[in-house]
Amino acid sequence: MFTGLIEEVGRVRSIDGNSRAMQLIISAQQVLTDTTIGDSIAVNGVCLTVTRLGKEEFEADVMPETMDKTSLRRLRPGSPVNLERALAAGERFGGHFVQGHVDGVGRIRTRTPVENAVLFEVEVPETLTQWMVDKGSVVVNGISLTLVTVTPRSFTVSIIPHTLTHTQLQNARPGDEVNIECDMIGKYVAKLLQKQQGDSMSEVLKQAGLTE
């Protein structure tokens, strides 16, 4: 489990593999503190397992399914990546519940400066926007963000300067692919509603434990 609050921006040091699977070596510092082999680190929002630790670097494997369903396949040596360690018990919780399981890949359509923020419009399939609502939560490349607007094929988020300068999004431009994870609560509610389409709303709420 993660929070969507990026701890540092690492950099891909080397890539070994092919179009189906690869091993990443990523330079980092902060996320290596108290990290051991077998721990999880989110890389651009993708939960990966640490397989080797070195001085100011770690290694992780990317399996075929992850290559197919995320933008990690676009990484090259030198690429900046958002990094976050898995949430430890007892830690202060911020952001929102993030699994590190990417639902799909979006593409940045526009990047627009407005006053003290930057608006990013991201194009995504309708299969993802069905789980989104205005002012709800979404994860973009591992960053917990609030949805400003949602249309059937896109959504907009507003990035404050601090988030922009402390994440990989400072380098993001229109046309870039980004990993998208939708709010897990929204997904559970949508699944429940799909299963209960024949029931009344009061019955759906009762079965969800929200009413008596």
Automatic annotation (TrEMBL):
Reaction(s) catalysed by this chain's protein: 2 6,7-dimethyl-8-(1-D-ribityl)lumazine + H(+) = 5-amino-6-(D-ribitylamino)uracil + riboflavin
Record-given protein name: Riboflavin synthase
Pfam families: Lum_binding
GO molecular-function terms, A-Z: riboflavin synthase activity
GO biological process terms on file: riboflavin biosynthetic process
Pathway(s) served: Cofactor biosynthesis; riboflavin biosynthesis; riboflavin from 2-hydroxy-3-oxobutyl phosphate and 5-amino-6-(D-ribitylamino)uracil: step 2/2
InterPro entries: ATP_synth_asu-like_sf (IPR023366), Lumazine-bd (IPR001783), Lumazine-bd_dom (IPR026017), Riboflavin_synthase-like_b-brl (IPR017938)
